[in-house]
Amino acid sequence: MAVVSDPISDFLTRWKNASRARKEDFTAPFSRVKAEIARILQQEGYIWSYEVDTSGTHPVLRVKNKFAGNRAVVTDVKRCSKPGMRKYVECDSIPRVLGGMGISILSTSKGVMTGAQARKQRVGGELLAIVW
Q1: Which domain holds residue 61?
Q2: Does 2 map to a domain?
Q3: CATH number of the CATH domain containing 37
């Protein structure tokens, strides 16, 4: 497997590509942050489920995509904070995605959470991605 400089972007790109290709599920190398992002995506209704498969030499994250009829539930994903250019936001400047039709995902001092949860808890953090 190739060395990936941005594992979160790799995970989000695998998810977007699998959704557009109408794949039922996909795998990605496991990390705690990616598992937390998958938990948020499941909680918000963008994926059916996820699980950690430790049967191989390296643990992998198995994600089951969600579709509405023939179309994927996710329209697009944008990675905001990148390794070369981190993007931090205060709780008052967390973006609302498409007027509430999408979600923003943040890494805060209280863990990985959606923008709405961060606003409610009055914490800012690193803006990882927006999903709609």
Answers
A1: 7-72
A2: no
A3: 3.30.1370.30
Quick check: is 1 in a domain?
A: no
Q: How far apart are the C-alpha atoms of 95 and 91, rounded to whole Å?
A: 9
Q: Do 17 and 67 lie in a common domain? A: yes
How many C-beta neighbours within 10 Å does residue 116 have? 14
The answer to whether residue 100 sits within a structural domain is: yes
Angstrom CA distances, 124 to 44, 82, 115, 121, stand at 20, 17, 9, 9
Do 62 and 27 contact (CB within 8 A), yes or no?
yes
pLDDT digits (tens, 9 = 90+) for 50-75: 999 999 999 999 999 999 998 999 99
Q: pTM for the whole thing?
A: 0.94
d(CA 78, CA 14): 13
Model confidence pLDDT, tens digit, residues 70-122: 899 999 999 999 999 999 999 999 999 999 899 999 999 999 999 999 999 99
